Amino acid sequence: MKTPQFQLKKKPTRWFRRTILVLALIVNSFANAQENPSQKQEKGSLFENYYNNTIFKIKNEKGAIVAEKKYTQLTQAEKKLVPSFLGRSKTMPTKEELDELFKKGGPAVIIIDAFDPKKQKTKKGENVVYQVNEITEDPIFPNGMEAFYQYMGQNLKLPKEVIEKNIKGRIYLSFILETDGSISEITTLRDGVGYGTSEEVIRVLKNAPKWIPGKINSEPVRVKYSLPITINPKA
Questions:
Q1: Which of 89, 191, 193, 215 is the most exposed place for a label (fewest CB within 10 A)?
Q2: Tell me, what's the pLDDT at 29?
């Protein structure tokens, strides 16, 4: 699947490129595991599998451990506080390195401290648009991102030229998720397919079910969101 065309004067930030690449590698790893019966994973998401043996110790406002949870038991706000599995590495992982990382699994124990002053997030005002790293709960498509990509795949009508020439590529989109879960201000950051494919992606995205909005301390806020749509006519 892919997205519309819009030329920016600025190139996507290093953070954005790194995030998209990591997301693509994770999606590819997941797809490979599904296609190869010898690499079947346990039931659950990649992150559930990665943290399968990790115990998350939850601190209260006094700094005392008040609960121990598995990853599947964490609230979304608690999951936002889980450190990146890539650590502080500034280099891009290869697909093989990412596969090995998930095979090894997460650390034995992770401390979750929502009351750490360094991790406190506050609302700045009405109608402010936040980045994902500024909120306490991420926006969620109903039933998750796998359901989102299924929706896109089932509803996209690719241009005839893309199908006949078997053009593959990615369309990178940016949009705002409003407090009611609707989508606004869709922008094409990069169109790697052409032939009007991005316009078709935008059409389908506009008709998508409402998302569960992002939040700061349980209060819905407007969130800037970016993602890639992969187009592969023969997939």
A1: 89
A2: 39
Q: How many CA atoms lie within 13 A of 204 on its CB side?
A: 22
Question: What is the Cα–Cα distance from 223 to 210, expressed in whole angstroms?
Answer: 14
State percent of the chain over pLDDT 70. 73
Q: In this structure, is the dihedral angle defined by the CA atoms of residues 65, 66, 72 and 75, taken in order, positive or negative?
A: negative
- In this prediction, residue 134 carries a pLDDT of 83
- For residue 54, name the pLDDT band (cuts at 50, 70, 90): very high
Domains of the chain: 1-11+123-235 (3.30.2420.10), 41-120 (no CATH)
pLDDT in the model for residue 192: 85
CA distance 207 to 40: 34
Q: In Å, what is the CA distance from 190 to each residue of 4, 10, 68?
A: 7, 11, 43
Cβ partners under 8 Å of residue 200, min gap 6: 156, 157, 158, 159
Bridge-based pairing of strands 183-191 and 169-177 is antiparallel
Calculate the average pLDDT of the chain.
Answer: 76
Q: Which of 232, 218, 9, 46 is nearest to 122 (CA)?
A: 218
What's residue 209's pLDDT? Answer: 93
Q: Report the C-alpha gap between 6 and 188 in whole angstroms.
A: 5
